[in-house]
Amino acid sequence: MKNNFKSILMMTIFAAGMFAGCKKANAKKITFVLDWTPNTNHTGLYVAQEKGYFAEEGLYVDIVQPSEDGATMMVASGRAQFGVGFQDSIAPSMLNDEKLPVTAVAALLQHNTSGLISLKKTGIDRPKNLEGKKYATWDSPIEHATIRKIVEQDGGDFSKIKLIPSTVYDVVTALNTEIDCVWIYYAWDGVKLELEGIDANYLDFRKIDDTFDYYTPMFISNTDFLEKDSVTAKKFLKALRRGYEFAVDNPDEAAEILCKAAPELDRDLVYASQRWISKEYKAEVEPWGYINPERWNRFFRWLNETGLLDGTLPENTGFTNDYLN
User: Fold this and answer.
1) Which one, out of 9, 49, 193, 208, has a CA that is 20 to 30 A from the CA of 315?
2) Pairing of strands 200-204, 114-119
């Protein structure tokens, strides 16, 4: 009797495994490339995977980290169908001579949640006070132009800022050593400083100048893929929307799902960050993922005025809301 029960149990497990394998084999594979290591920007993606939202749409989604040439190039080359991009860094690739087949298809966050952070004791409580201070830069022309604009419109002199080329992996360490100020995304590094009880000043770009309330980060897709398989693109974004909306309504459960997918993360930081960022995924905007043309174009018009680009970005170039459900 015992042996019969074991046999039936083994057959049931085998059959279930075969069924799951068939479902996976029949599903359409989508490769999604992150912009960085997993963090709370990506939680809705992992929720959609854990809750089976992708599977319900007949999709098998492989989440990968970017190669050396970055997420945008992976999407442009077709090695990934979707990924995470940024409106500022993607802009040069949208001009005619260098145009890449990449389109923004949904906002990940509705507003720019990045800004400049410094220890309270440095006194950088307004852009002008960056004069004479050391700023960690990745030496992007658009980055410099952004800092220059907010400093000069506050009456400061950009040339008096000490630009220190540096890739900052740990903001707390950087601010306690050779750097006075770092460009961060508040949901991760700002919340981290809060958790550690560090007094800081934060200059929020979107509150200083609405030109900088652009889309960063956002979801991008390969343009050729969108044209050839719009049905799959819509299915993917439908499942993704459900994942992010779940995270909006259930930040702690969503944080646990992210911790399960990326157990190397600091749990306290994930939970605190998730409670902060869940309110930013949709903010005041319906539907999820909607890209506001006015805000998109306002940033590109400013870029055109700076003369930094080898050409002019046309209005409404580089994004679409057509695949949102």
Assistant:
1) 208
2) antiparallel
Q: What is the Cα–Cα distance from 92 to 87, expressed in whole angstroms? A: 10
Q: pTM of the entire structure?
A: 0.91
Q: Tokens 């994930």 — which residue?
A: 270
The structure tokens listed for 312 are 């002019």
Q: Are 69 and 93 in contact (CB under 8 A)?
A: no
User: Rounded mean pLDDT of 73-99?
Assistant: 92
Find tokens 């949208």 and name the residue. Answer: 94
Cβ neighbours around 95 below 10 Å, total: 16
Distance CA 90, CA 59 (A): 27
For residue 167, name the pLDDT band (cuts at 50, 70, 90): confident
Sequence letter at residue 104: A
